[in-house]
Amino acid sequence: MPADADVRGPVGGDASGEAVFEELRDLDRLVHEPARLMILAYLFVTDSADFVFLARQTGLTLGNLSSHVSKLEEAGYVEVQKSFKGKRPNTQLRLTEPGRKAFAEYRERIERALRDLPEIAGPHDSPTRR
Amino acid sequence: MTPNRLADLERSAWRSNFDDGLFDLLLGSMLLLNWLGSVVPNNRLLYPFFFAIVGAYVVVKRVVVLPRTGVARFAAPRRQRKVLSMALLLAPLLLGLAVMVLTSLDGTSAAWLRAHPIVFHAAFPLMVVLVFSGLASLLEVPRIHAIGVIMALAFGVDLWRDSATGFLIGGVLVCIPGIVLLTRFLHRYPPLTPEERQHAR
To answer: Looking at beta carbons, which residues of chain A come within 8 Å of B73?
Structure first.
């Protein structure tokens, strides 16, 4: 690939360039948000977790976490199970099958897109500096 | 986020269970209890302390630690490792019991063991190191290796030199990081405010 060809954007770019940006354009925006991505990642590696655990691990405030979880719940990515442990209410969060699939798909898509992105070489860089 | 990074994430979430230092304090207290056993005239007086320490561990974990850290249920491989580590802790007890029963049934092997104390004196600390090494690997908490070595040395000093000083020094050495970790934990994770509890649903 010529040096000037790998910095083209989606407009006027070649077919492979368009494919890269297509991957990025098609990213699931709900998963792409950093706080929600963290929540999904932690739920992906555990069977289930409660609000406090997720807040401690992600560093989000409980209020912030609650609002992101609501969005994920609405999308059907996260299941919220409420129960009682003795007299204490206990809320467990679990990734649903669509949520698991969405996270896995997001990972694949972003990995592919990042792998195919042009090297960090702008139009001002000479080939010898790369 | 590659599979390796996800595995790291899972491991760090799991290891956070041991950030409270309670496990260190539990083991360190057991060593100190052994030392106390050599100081007080009647060992039986210490039995209630043993149960008090185990009880305190359970209560503090449930009442102080878990409400601050929250709870997660980990995937099956992690749960299997936890069960295996419990079995590993129980194995030496069962082995010891089996040896006691067998030697009491067979007088010659009991006499042989008494005549060759070096076998027991070498085997016991070695077993402690192996058990804690296995525990550290299964639980993926590296500092348990060090705790195992300290415990083995304490038992070794007791068996070889007939001195309980090893228990005192070992107990203090294990308890100090436990106290530091617990203090840091309590500072880092204050109890939830009523408002936060509301959000936690």
So the answer is: 46-49, 92
Q: Tally A–B CB contacts below 8 A.
A: 79
CB contact under 8 A, A47 and B74: yes
B95-123: pLDDT as tens digits: 878 877 777 777 777 777 777 778 778 88
The Cα-based distances of B110 to A33, B45, B107, B164 in angstroms read: 69, 29, 5, 25
Among candidates A45, A55, A92 on the partner chain, residue whose Cβ is nearest the Cβ of B9: A45
Q: Which CATH number fits domain A13-116: 2.60.200.40, 1.10.10.60, 1.20.120.450, 1.10.10.10?
A: 1.10.10.10
Least CB-CB distance to A46: which of B74, B196, B201? Answer: B74
pLDDT per position as a tens digit, A23-43: 778 888 899 999 999 999 999
Residue A20 — φ and ψ, nearest 5°?
A: -60, -50
Q: With a cut of 0.85, is the ipTM above it? A: no
